[in-house]
């Protein structure tokens, strides 16, 4: 029996894509009321209506959560992250037949908790330092947060090593790697979504809504006008849908970037009384080549409208590659969808494969082109210091301003 098991594991290492075992297809989770209402339609149009109705329901729910505030949005992101992690890790369990591996299900979720503890702790320490400083019981957790996070992860690492079983080594390391790649895809990317939210509601809503717009309009254009296949990984994707989605998303990004609710960047975390320079109207010169076409020499725009063009362009040209990547992943393991959570759409990961790639781009874009010195953040850090340290900073800053001629040497304070 041990010889047979060893041979099976050896074959597992050497198999090709065609040898991957079939994962049971997801069941049809469409509500019965929809099935009866659409029973007379063809499969193509039935899928159209199911996707459309569920899309409207999800968008309505999203707007409701936006209305409830930023904290609820953070909970939404966390919930989506956990569900996406569950869908991907479950595929690994099925493909590699790892249900019976000792401790592994528990370790997978333990690592998820460890990584979330690290990232959310970093967020609390970064944005709520003043709040934490007022509560002595939290100061220890924040001061030694990274050491605690490392100790927690190290505990899981040691538990994994202790769980290694003869004849299962290779299989266990397969799943260890699978777990960590899944953590990289889901937890890290969702953390960037939270970071974008802290930069202002507009950096959360515009990128996400641009991806949603591109997904919907590309599907509509492809459904009605699609004739030319776009990529072999996704046979249903067409050039007509890709191009139609691009122009629709750019127009959508331009319109939504001037909406008054978004121009005022106030939310639960950003409390400036005055909009930043990104949301103040400015006059720009029209390039000479375009002046002959539009007939304008200057145009008044919000600076963010130009940034929204960059965001919508990425969402429509590069964002879909997140979906292509997910399609390749699903083809590699012979599955149609990650799960059957949303009728007509598949799993949660099927809906957020592009969102995670978009979140990374937005974070990189903000740090590269938008974010500058933040006086309010620096002030929070100064308030944490001891009084003698604050006084030392004050004296150093005063001496620097005197040398620059900004303050008079006789100034007291």
From TrEMBL:
<dbReference type="InterPro" id="IPR016720">
    <property type="entry name" value="PC_Trfase_euk"/>
</dbReference>
<feature type="transmembrane region" description="Helical">
    <location>
        <begin position="200"/>
        <end position="226"/>
    </location>
</feature>
<comment type="pathway">
    <text>Phospholipid metabolism; CDP-diacylglycerol biosynthesis; CDP-diacylglycerol from sn-glycerol 3-phosphate: step 3/3.</text>
</comment>
<keyword id="KW-0444">Lipid biosynthesis</keyword>
<keyword id="KW-0594">Phospholipid biosynthesis</keyword>
<feature type="transmembrane region" description="Helical">
    <location>
        <begin position="174"/>
        <end position="194"/>
    </location>
</feature>
<keyword id="KW-1208">Phospholipid metabolism</keyword>
<keyword id="KW-0808">Transferase</keyword>
<keyword id="KW-0443">Lipid metabolism</keyword>
<feature type="transmembrane region" description="Helical">
    <location>
        <begin position="48"/>
        <end position="80"/>
    </location>
</feature>
<comment type="pathway">
    <text>Lipid metabolism.</text>
</comment>
<dbReference type="Pfam" id="PF01148">
    <property type="entry name" value="CTP_transf_1"/>
</dbReference>
<keyword id="KW-1133">Transmembrane helix</keyword>
<dbReference type="GO" id="GO:0005789">
    <property type="term" value="C:endoplasmic reticulum membrane"/>
</dbReference>
<feature type="transmembrane region" description="Helical">
    <location>
        <begin position="101"/>
        <end position="120"/>
    </location>
</feature>
<keyword id="KW-0548">Nucleotidyltransferase</keyword>
<feature type="transmembrane region" description="Helical">
    <location>
        <begin position="140"/>
        <end position="162"/>
    </location>
</feature>
<keyword id="KW-0472">Membrane</keyword>
<comment type="similarity">
    <text>Belongs to the CDS family.</text>
</comment>
<dbReference type="GO" id="GO:0016024">
    <property type="term" value="P:CDP-diacylglycerol biosynthetic process"/>
</dbReference>
<feature type="transmembrane region" description="Helical">
    <location>
        <begin position="306"/>
        <end position="326"/>
    </location>
</feature>
<keyword id="KW-0812">Transmembrane</keyword>
<feature type="transmembrane region" description="Helical">
    <location>
        <begin position="238"/>
        <end position="262"/>
    </location>
</feature>
<dbReference type="InterPro" id="IPR000374">
    <property type="entry name" value="PC_trans"/>
</dbReference>
<dbReference type="GO" id="GO:0004605">
    <property type="term" value="F:phosphatidate cytidylyltransferase activity"/>
</dbReference>
<protein>
    <recommendedName>
        <fullName>Phosphatidate cytidylyltransferase</fullName>
        <ecNumber>2.7.7.41</ecNumber>
    </recommendedName>
</protein>
